[in-house]
């Protein structure tokens, strides 16, 4: 979005996002500010992301401008952060408390130093920018039993786990990992709330069993007890005809989870799938071709969520797909279907 742009072009691009979002009937923009231990803003403990480094060196702060552009049009702006993910480029790592999974690196969730880095990173955002919220994405421990064995401590965490047990701790490795993530979530909640009116949310994957058992994110705990999160937005990125992971079954499952009165439930919708020719994991012929055969999936899902009193709204991933006319057609994607999807969606937005 901002790569290779001049300051004037960057401002125009950000303004257009906010103008469009308001016109679409949206009320908040989730703005990615740290994706891989990097920063799309100026005041930071992290190196500037490559795409915006020239802009920041020239004195332009994308986040500061985005907040102003959103607020001037009556929109909220939430800062979107991937807390643990460093990616493949270790030049963006801060400190040494990280481990490798596949070709990517992650901060060690059990490291106090890494936890403090993440907490302080959120702290500088809410201190220096008038954001309305902070959102963590669905990346916690990576789902990688080679790097993160399910039944024993990994090399990167063995020292912390052994100390925990020596000090009298009794949790097995899986429960201990969930404890580390929950400690971070609780601390970030407190840090976010140092800005009055600012909220903290999590956007996990839709598969709650995977979140709990493989990513070590105890989202049910965060939903049930106060002062972990203000909202949860599961990414229910499935079609209505998906047999492997049906949208309605996922929606009902998340609504059924006990929730503290302070925690709101929003639903993440897969705007990026409109017009795709094959949803290969859908589990049935009708589900596989659903997004090419139908042009009202987003509309129907939005109306379904609106009919549920347990749900407070939806979030769409992602902005660029609101303008399918600008996307190049391919063998994997049908532009005309995408255009009709958006037309139908905007009728009810």
Q: How would you describe this structure to a colleague?
A:
- The protein has a single domain (7-348), classed as TIM Barrel (Alpha-Beta Barrel), CATH 3.20.20.80.
- It contains 13 helices and twelve strands.
- The longest helix is centred in the middle third of the chain and has 20 residues, at 173-192.
- By secondary structure, it is an alpha/beta fold.
- It has a seven-stranded parallel β-sheet.
- The radius of gyration is 21 Å and the shape is globular.
- The mean pLDDT is 97.
Write the layout of secondary structure elements.
Elements: H1 7-24, E1 28-34, E2 38-39, E3 47-48, H2 53-57, H3 62-71, E4 76-81, E5 85-87, E6 98-101, E7 104-107, H4 112-128, E8 133-136, H5 158-166, H6 173-192, E9 199-202, H7 208-213, H8 219-224, E10 231-232, H9 247-256, E11 264-269, H10 285-288, H11 290-293, H12 297-306, E12 313-316, H13 335-348
Parallel strand pairs: 1-4, 2-3, 4-8, 8-9, 9-10, 10-11, 11-12
Antiparallel strand pairs: 5-7, 6-7
Helix pairs in contact: 1-3, 4-6, 12-13
How would you summarize what this structure contains?
With 349 residues, this protein is of the alpha/beta class.
CATH architectural label: Alpha-Beta Barrel
| Overall number of strands | 12
Distance between the termini: 24 Å
The third-level CATH topology is: TIM Barrel
Radius of gyration: 21 Å
What is the 3D shape? globular
Total discrete domains: 1
- Please state how the strands of the largest beta sheet are arranged side by side: 1-4-8-9-10-11-12
CATH class label: Alpha Beta
Structural class: alpha/beta
CATH H-level homologous superfamily name: Glycosidases
Proportion of strand residues: 5-15%
Sequence of secondary-structure elements: HEEEHHEEEEHEHHEHHEHEHHHEH
Uncertain residue segments: none
């Amino acid at each position: 979005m901002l790569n290779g742009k001049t300051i004037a072009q960057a401002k125009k691009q950000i303004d257009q996002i906010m103008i469009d979002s308001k016109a679409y009937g949206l009320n908040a923009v989730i703005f990615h500010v740290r994706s891989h231990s990097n920063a799309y803003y100026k005041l930071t403990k992290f190196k500037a992301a490559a795409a915006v480094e020239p802009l920041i060196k020239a004195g332009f702060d994308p986040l500061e401008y985005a907040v102003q552009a959103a607020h001037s049009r009556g929109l909220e702006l939430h800062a979107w952060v991937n807390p643990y993910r460093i990616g493949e480029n270790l030049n963006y790592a801060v400190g040494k408390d990280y481990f490798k999974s596949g070709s990517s690196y992650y901060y060690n969730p059990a490291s106090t130093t890494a936890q403090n880095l993440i907490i302080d990173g959120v702290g500088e955002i809410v201190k220096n920018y008038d954001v309305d919220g902070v959102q963590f994405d669905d990346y916690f421990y990576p789902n990688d039993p080679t790097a993160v064995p399910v039944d024993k401590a990994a090399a990167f965490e063995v020292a912390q786990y052994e100390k925990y047990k020596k000090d009298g701790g009794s949790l097995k490795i899986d429960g201990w990992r969930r404890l580390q993530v929950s400690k971070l979530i609780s601390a970030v909640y407190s840090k976010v709330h140092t800005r009055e009116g600012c909220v903290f949310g999590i956007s996990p994957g839709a598969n709650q069993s995977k979140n709990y058992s493989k990513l070590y994110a105890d989202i049910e705990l965060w939903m049930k007890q106060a002062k972990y999160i203000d909202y949860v937005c599961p990414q229910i990125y499935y079609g209505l005809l998906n047999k492997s992971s049906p949208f309605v079954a996922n929606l009902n499952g998340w609504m059924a989870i006990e929730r503290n009165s302070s925690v709101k439930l929003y639903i993440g919708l897969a705007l990026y799938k409109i017009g795709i020719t094959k949803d290969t994991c859908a589990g049935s012929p009708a589900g596989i071709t659903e997004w090419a055969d139908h042009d009202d999936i987003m509309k129907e899902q939005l109306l379904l969520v609106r009919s549920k009193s347990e749900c407070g709204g939806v979030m769409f991933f992602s902005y660029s797909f609101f303008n399918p006319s600008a996307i190049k057609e391919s063998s994997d994607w049908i532009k005309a279907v995408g255009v009709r999807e958006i037309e139908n969606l905007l009728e009810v937005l």
